[in-house]
Design brief:
With 768 residues, this protein is α/β, with parallel strands linked by helices. Helix content is 37%, strand content 17%. It is built from 32 helices and 33 strands. Helix 1 runs parallel beside helix 3, helix 8 runs parallel beside helix 27 and helix 14 packs antiparallel against helix 17. The chain is globular and about 75 Å long. It starts with 6 loop residues before the first strand and ends in a 5-residue tail after the last strand. 59% of the residues are buried. The protein binds ligand MGD (2 copies) and molybdenum atom.
Length: 768
């Protein structure tokens, strides 16, 4: 259902199903995709095909029929669009003019076709030759007195091969400044899990889903963000597995699902119920909930012990594999219930019921997304979930384990390749041995620290390998100011976005091939490798004709910049870029688990990386799975805000709509939540709205409450009554990013707390 008029209309159909198929047709029409390119949809996530750039969910079976996914089609169609933002387009528009357009409008201009340089005299981007662009970057990088004055961002679509070359180049240049999208995404997972189970990755594969009897889904909206996961969940539900969604919102995709690949369901109007239980903490309430469940598991075990019944704890696992249990249990025992109930926003009976479900499960998988990772206490969330599974030995056995669900299709692989601002000594030693240069040992800057450093004038050059830094990052006006203070900003991109328009004194746009496009080097087709959310590494081959003959691959662009900056040092960049299997041979020399890379990745479906925690090998300081104690935070930003302004303070979660891919807005609808033709809405509980004396549909301004008293406002949003817990509101990212203070980052991992922003609502000022 698409509408020309903005509207709010509840959606009462199952997720996916005919609604999804219709959207596919609409998408292909809108992007005017050349029919000759349609066959590519059949090649998505197939052997010999390309890895879908949509999300990092793995493929059940590479040889199966077409893995259908509405949002995968949107991602692919957005890349295959026949629209072009070519040199003529940039000749027609000044940057100031383009800045006046919405992100949705910018996206509509289509694919970038030529390397461009910013011309301040005309306020336009003009064509530049590739070699001149590389020379300009090299000149600026070499002119910096200290390599730490440059920062190198990576978004998670970048292939392993490009990411590996990129980190090698940047370290040979002399810095570990590697902000990446992961800093804003699953950083709490990547930093939190090493402290408990040793490895920051999933301990499960899809085969475990086929065996699990209990699934706990924390803070995830798979119907929109990982639609192929629904197929897996449907099979679990049909087998009778218990599926619990822990989410302030009852997301449609977790209620009912019609599989577009099942003719029976499509024709029969059938659908499968997914979640049997919905637990709805308040936004940011998961930590208290998890701690409560853990406390109850301990109580259940005490009772079982007293009654001579089978234990609820896995005492053998705890004794044989874990460290720190005594202190952990003591902390749970002294924790009072009342604060857990208050902070979680979940009734005691429900906490106990969730503990019962978990305590009965024999094979339990816990999955999680941004609902756990984008809070001040995100690391505590992840570690408490890990503690909980460890209590019952639900890690490293079939059908059970930890399952962080990553976002970008190769965000996990990029980190594996060394896109890491805090690299380990072992990895740096290895680079030194293999390449004979001394890599920088100082830790580098992440996203938030990069913005801070730019604002202080300490970072002068920004290089973005993909992504849309200015819109993805928090505190938009300050991030904009930061980029504008740079001497040079470079964006390697497929499509126009705001990061091209908010630029440094000098600026370059370097247009690149997308994942779906054929990558020929000296006439030979190249594949690139990616690692999915469950650690499967496989090859991806583009099949479409590139959007423009001038495009270069990310590998070629990185090699070009590296050679211009460093010459053929420490590797012959141009030679490596001629044949990507040569890069894979380099990766095999340095990165653990990639031995014999070329041969192993050639197998159908690729290979699974060794994940030590899956094998119950614990790469922690103690050599054991480590229980970690965390206390409730009595002084969170929300507490502080409520002390100043009382219960009028609401906590805002910024979420994705069904028609966006991160900062890319495909269309203005959010079908499953019933929003059409607009994005400027705030979902609110009717009682909270009434308490504020506001009418349904009223226009409001949102103001952040933060200690620094810097004004942070987004104006003119419309209130929509919604089934959301009291005290919580939700609105779309990236429009609400100006509300996220830079300093509002997660403890220990720096992720912007974009799911828990204390805000005040007030009637919109006239003219807003
Ligand atoms: N189509 C599409 N696919 C995508 C993306 C996209 O934008 N569009 N983005 C990709 C990327 S990079 C990522 S990281 C993933 C993101 O995928 P998700 O993790 O699903 O991302 P979000 O939509 O940000 O938020 C997920 C859920 O968190 C819930 N939530 C909010 N606050 C809380 C809380 O305090 N506790 C709990 N338990 N839940 C909470 C929200 O209600 C929402 O359902 O998807 C990837 N796939
Ligand atoms: N408030 C708030 N902020 C958030 C989030 C949130 O939930 N709330 N989520 C955070 C999360 S989870 C993430 S991952 C980040 C996302 O941050 P980013 O990864 O920086 O953002 P994207 O919107 O995915 O980037 C889109 C751009 O990437 C370029 N692009 C697309 N494909 C390719 C390609 O193959 N190669 C290259 N070189 N470029 C390409 C296109 O030009 C496109 O405009 O945002 C974060 N920001
Ligand atoms: Mo993400």
């Amino acid at each position: 259902m698409s509408r020309s008029q903005p509207a709010i209309q509840p959606y009462d159909h199952p997720a996916a199903g005919w609604g999804a198929l219709k959207q596919v047709a609409v998408t292909l029409l809108r992007e005017r995709v050349d029919p000759a390119k349609l066959k590519m949809l059949l090649a998505q996530n197939q052997p010999e095909g390309f890895d879908c750039p949509g999300c990092a969910w793995p493929d059940r079976n590479h040889a199966s029929t077409f893995e259908f996914c509405e949002n995968g089609v949107k991602a692919v169609a957005a890349e295959a669009t026949s629209r072009r933002a070519d040199a003529a387009f940039f000749a027609r528009h000044t940057v100031a003019e383009l800045l006046g357009q919405s992100d949705f409008e910018l996206e509509q201009h289509g694919r970038l076709t030529d390397p461009l340089v910013y011309d301040p005299a005309s306020d336009r981007y003009l064509p530049i030759a590739w070699d001149e662009a590389f020379a300009l970057i090299a000149r600026e990088l070499r002119a910096l007195p200290d390599p730490d004055q440059a920062s190198f961002y990576t978004s998670g679509r970048t292939s392993n091969e490009a990411a590996y070359l990129f980190q090698l180049f940047v370290r040979a240049y002399g810095t570990n400044n590697f902000p990446d999208c992961s800093n804003m995404c699953h950083e709490a997972t990547s930093r939190g899990l090493p402290g408990t189970v040793g490895v920051g990755k999933a301990t499960v594969t899809l085969d475990d889903f086929a065996q699990a009897d209990t699934l706990l889904l924390f803070g995830q909206n798979p119907g929109t963000n990982h639609p192929r996961m629904l197929g897996e969940l449907r099979d679990c539900a049909r087998r009778g597995a218990t599926i619990v969604s822990i989410n302030p919102l009852r997301e449609r995709g977790l209620e009912r699902f019609t599989d577009p690949q099942s003719p029976l369901e499509m024709l029969g109007g059938g659908s499968t119920s997914i979640s049997s239980v919905f637990v709805r903490p308040r936004v940011g309430g998961d930590f208290a909930l998890l701690k409560g469940v853990a406390k109850r598991v301990l109580e259940l075990d005490d009772a079982a012990l007293a009654a001579g019944a089978p234990r609820v704890l896995d005492v053998d696992f705890i004794a044989g594999h874990c460290s720190g249990f005594e202190a952990f249990a003591a902390d749970l025992r002294q924790q009072a219930w009342q604060p857990l109930v208050e902070e979680s926003g979940v009734e005691l009976e429900q906490i106990l019921a969730l503990a019962d479900i978990y305590g009965r499960g024999q094979r339990v998988i816990a999955t999680w997304g941004m609902g756990l990772t984008q809070h001040k206490h995100a690391m505590a969330n992840v570690q408490m979930l890990s503690n909980l599974l460890m209590m019952r030995g639900q890690i490293g056995k079939p059908g059970a384990g930890l399952c962080p669900v990553r976002g970008h299709s190769n965000v996990q692989g990029d980190r594996t390749m060394g896109i890491e601002e805090r690299p380990g000594a072992q990895f740096l030693d290895r680079l030194q041995q293999v390449y004979g240069f001394a890599p920088p040992r100082r830790h580098g800057l992440d996203v938030v620290a990069t913005i801070d450093a730019m604002l202080r004038g300490q970072v002068r050059v920004f290089f973005g390998l993909g992504g849309n830094f200015v819109m993805a990052a928090p505190d938009t006006p300050r991030t904009m100011q930061a980029l504008r203070q740079c001497e040079l900003t470079v964006q390697v991109s497929t499509k126009l976005n705001r990061s091209h328009l908010v630029h440094g004194r000098q600026a370059l746009i370097l247009p690149t091939l997308g994942r779906t496009e054929r990558d020929l080097q000296r006439g030979v087709e190249q594949g690139v490798s990616v690692e999915d959310s469950m650690c499967q590494v496989h090859l991806s081959f583009g099949m479409n004709r590139p959007a423009s003959p001038a495009l270069r691959s990310e590998v070629a662009i990185v090699a070009g910049v590296a050679e211009a900056t460093l010459g053929a040092r420490p590797v012959d960049w141009a030679w490596l870029a001629q044949d990507y299997s040569r890069i894979r041979d380099e990766i095999a020399k340095v990165i653990e688990g990639f031995e014999d890379f070329n041969r192993r990745v050639a197998a159908e479906g690729g290979f699974h990386l060794h994940v030590a925690s899956r094998e119950r090998q614990w790469l922690t300081a103690s050599g054991k799975a480590q229980f970690v104690v965390h206390a409730l935070d009595p002084d969170s930003p929300l507490h502080r805000a409520r002390r100043r302004h009382g219960e009028r303070v609401l906590v805002l979660a910024t979420i994705r709509s069904h028609d966006q891919y991160n900062t890319t807005v495909y269309a203005l609808n959010d079908r499953y939540r019933g929003v059409y033709g607009r994005r400027d809405v705030v979902f609110i509980h009717p009682a909270d709205r009434q308490a504020l004396g506001l009418a349904e549909g009223a226009k409001v301004d949102l103001d952040t409450v933060w200690d620094d008293d810097v004004p942070r406002r987004v104006p003119g949003f419309t209130l929509v009554d919604y089934d959301i817990p009291r005290g919580c509101i939700a609105a779309y990212y990236p429009e609400t990013n100006p509300l996220v203070p830079l300093a509002s980052a997660a403890d220990g991992c720096g992720t912007p707390a974009s799911k828990s922003i204390p805000v005040l609502l007030s009637p919109a000022r006239a003219g807003a």
